[in-house]
Amino acid sequence: ESQVKQQELLMSQKYNEQLMLLQRVAQQRRSDLAHRVSHLEMEYHQRKAQEDFLKQSYEIERDNYEAQVKLQAELAELRKLQELHEASCQRLTQPQHGGTYSYVPSVGWPSPRAAPQPMSPRCCCYASGPSPVVE
């Protein structure tokens, strides 16, 4: 009977040792999993922040490109208007067949007969007059 009790005590000790070992292993695994979850969450947030930054950068670049295209189109239109205006100014400053000057006003440009103002160095029109509006 004492031998049975000794074996029972030994078995109980082994059981408790094994149980403690399993509990330590389980605790270590939970800790490892929590660490991994934390690491993955941090990685997710970093990637999400990078993705948001790239998306915002793309939108800024796209907006800048669209604005540049619009400005280039407006500049081309203004250049055409300037060429037309300069051609009109040349017609105004060249004598006609009988040696007289002809006046053909350009739409949107100031009249040369307006109040005296400083002359533009490139044109026969007055420099401080109203400018044409191109939309």
Give the SSE map:
Layout: H1 2-93
Largest sheet: none
Counting DSSP E segments of at least 2 residues, the number of strands comes to: 0
Give the helix tally.
1
Strand content: under 5%
Poorly predicted regions are 115-119, 126-130
* Mean of pLDDT: 82
Measured as a percent range, the helix fraction is 55-70%
The Rg value, from CA coordinates, equals 44 Å
Order of helices and strands: H
In short:
The protein is mainly α and 135 residues long. 68% of the residues lie in helices and 0% in strands.
Description of the structure:
With 135 residues, the protein is an all-alpha fold. 68% of the residues lie in helices and 0% in strands. The protein is built from one helix and no strands. The longest helix is centred in the middle third of the chain and has 92 residues, at 2-93.
Output the keywords.
135 residues, mainly alpha, single chain, 1 helix, rod-shaped, 68% helix
